[in-house]
Amino acid sequence: MWLAVLAAVLWAAMTWPWTRRRSSPSTMIWMSQPPWMRAAAGANVYDQESGRVLPTIYERTTALGQQHGAVNLGQGFPDQEGPAWLRQLAAEAVGTDAGPSNQYPPGMGFPWFREAVADHQQRWYGVALDPQTQVMHTTGATEAITASILALAEPGSEILTFEPFYDSYGAVAALAGAELRTVPLRAPGFRPDTAALEAAVTARTSMILVNTPHNPTGTVFTEAELETIVDIARRHDLVVMADEVYEHLVLPGADSSHRTILSIRGAEDVAVAVGSVGKSFAVTGWKVGWLTGSADLVNRVRGSSSS
Ligand SMILES: Cc1ncc(COP(=O)(O)O)c(C=O)c1O
Question: Helical H runs in the chain?
């Protein structure tokens, strides 16, 4: 009798869906590779034969564009330097002894920077954020994306995104030991198929990455599409990360106007949004970015960020 009970308990423990938080066999093989190799393979820049890391797709397309005098649609690379007034202000800020521009900022970023981001979100989208706890400064959007994935996607989990996607998603997912799975944005409309997205959710899914306005298709997700994505996240206990670096680069005639994910009903406690001055002000080399979200999610991402 006791033996039967013990066997039943063992069987239940082994078959219970712990898998939601457990590594799959492929992830365990994946995780046995060194982190740099995982990340490079995740970004499709690892050459197995030579063991070398190859230039990224962006480096390759930009070099080819320059070589042939072609229009560079491959990388979000501005045609001009940023506005002169902005560069002048930056030069004055680093040139003054009044500081504190040249020294370490606090971990979340300088208060004036966080207040400026909170003001921006209020003015453009009507979203009220506490600059103390709901805004974090990052080294470009890429650090915000990296820190979010490392903080919010467990090893062995799956991350869903629409394809094509910014190559760093694949690199960081691999670094985190997560699997990046994709749902295509299909021509000619390149609208997100939210039914296909939900069908791709499994017990291991931890995050949905949304890039809107989308690079490279220019698709701006509508409010209804974002509401559906947030609803999927809520029902399946997922976090949404919205990469909104192109928020001010919406093509004339786009189907809808951009709104931040945090303005979507129900997103407050399940979503984070990523922004950057690089694209909006044509200063991609500055690498000034930010993360916004609930105090709880921002706190978790801060835990995995470098500062
Ligand atoms: C969709 C997307 N997100 C983020 C970035 C990078 O932003 P940042 O330069 O602020 O790190 C890029 C750059 O091309 C991009 O295309």
Answer: 2-15, 25-31, 35-42, 57-68, 84-95, 111-125, 140-152, 167-175, 194-200, 223-236, 277-280, 295-304
